[in-house]
Amino acid sequence: MRLISSRVAGRQSIARALSAALAAAALLIGLTPGTTSAAATTATTGEQLAASWRGPLSTRGRYIVDADGNRFKLKAGNWSGAQGTWEGSGDVNDPANHQADQKSNNIPLGLDRTPIARILADFHALGINSIRLPYADALIRDTTVVPDAAVTANPQLKGKTPLQVYDAVVAALTADGFAVILNNHTTTYRFCCSLDGNERWNTSQSTQQWLDNWVFMAKRYQANKRVVGADLRNEVRRDLNDDPNWGWGDEHDLYYALEKAGNKILQTDPDMLIIMEGINWQGIPQAMFPHGRPTLTPVRNLSHTLINSGKLVYSAHFYGFTGPHHTGATGGWQNGETNDPRYRDLSPDDLIKVIDDQALFVTQSGQHFTAPVWISEFGTAGRGQTDAKEIDWFRRFTDILVKNDTDFAMWPLVGWTGADGKPQDNWALLSYDTTGKSQTVNDPGDWRATDWNKLVDAPGKSGQVDQVDHWNMLDLDFGDQNVSSTMLAKADWSSGNRKGNCPDSQRLVALARSNNRGLCTDAGQPAKTAGAWTTVTDERYVTHGDWASGYNKLQCPDNSFAVGYSVNGNSMAALLCAPSATALPLTGRNVWFDNGDNRPATGGSTASDWAPGAYKGQCADNEYLAGVAYTWKWQHGGAPDALLCRPLT
Prior knowledge:
Shape: elongated
Strand content: 15-25%
Radius of gyration: 26 Å
Number of strands: 28
Number of helices: 11
Largest sheet: 8 strands, parallel, barrel
Low-confidence stretches: 1-39
Distance between the termini: 64 Å
Structural class: alpha/beta
């Protein structure tokens, strides 16, 4: 039984049901057959695009910015093919066994049909500035030479392996001004997404191999600052027996895997954006079992912290034929179809709420989870579309993206045109026949043109984006969370205990009782000196009076501030302190949280819960954490009871 519906199966089932002529589709949306649905967006040249931005990219709050601090909105498409197109059964050499009868030969589609310069010119005409470039892990070690027929229109690529062709595509895109995001789409060359051996990053390979592959790719393109991002894994979902999870600390923990990969990449190439997609599917799609599409919902209470606070982007995928609890399957329960609503079935208000709950809430400012959200896949069929719900959903969904000024990437960019003159994959924005003749979304007959151009041309934030303060959480539920570059280069500072270290640009500002979580910030951050950091395990630095009589205390030396902590079980073990470059005030206040939360009424991350079910103590944004009090009395078990918070100035 298929537990997860493949995206392509959903698309094909729709496509096979579409038998109406192009004229009927045009009439369905109120167009006169033979007319275009919207004026094409103004095209840019490669020179214009290249001159408009400078890499690398970073983040400031909910926005992505270029090297000059200017907003760089990802207006993107997915150029698929290098992830593989074989659908998993039949002769791999038979195009009929490939997605939409398009055999990619494991390289980006279209290179057999038209010169790459023409393809890139067509990308410019669409109004996009960036490309999500999927690949399979198999491509990295594939020494097979691509067939000459696969690059007929690009003879300079003859004799190359799939990876070498991928290299050439990256080089051409970036030379023409596009930003490129590397996307680890699959492990094998089998087309996503079902029970296909690609469900998780470690389904058909080890986690270590996946990490090594990412380090390889980061090193390979490190010198090219228009290769701007690493999209870590596509649509992680349940396999036959196991669900992916978010923060359980086991081999199926997507939260942990993404953070580990992101920090490995940043240690290799500090300039890369790290793009993390949430869980695409959990559960058995039957009415008697829990099931659903969490997407980014778990980020609300458990977000990621990277060694560089300005590099995290979250992503999500939305298709009208799927739903919050619907796989997208058709054909009844035997095929994994449930009675849950699809996104296209939701009312306008419900769709807005669901998209916010599953993804766009992450753009809320000043929270532990705050980051840009990139809708890195969405789409629907164009020519031949007769499903009024799909048309309505696409228009409403693109309205949501416009209203929220959301970064986006449509699936897919490139497909083939068949001998009958019709696109073989009518989801593609561009289709090429065997002579290289193109059909685009802006040519007459594609109803999506109005909504596509509305999206590409939408007004939004532009120009300089102000620097922002960050709040990032530490999670010691199942092990260390060391996101300090300084401490990663040093020996274990609290052996035998679980440790949390803030990024080097931040300091510890809050702790939770009983679940070992903490909160870091760079708000008002004092500069550090080059001196040694201090591990505190006793009360030797409590030198200005007993601020928590009868309690054990860990206190930083004068003129230093907490940047990390360690625990044993739920009890405090040590405090890690960094020296300040300037003198810090030595008077302060106690923040007790042994009987309830004690957090500022306003300020960083106060509108979000980074430790659900646990009491939290938090210093104000203009304070530093100088000490922690705890006790073994009264069955407190050594959990933190109070913070010593002192003003920064």
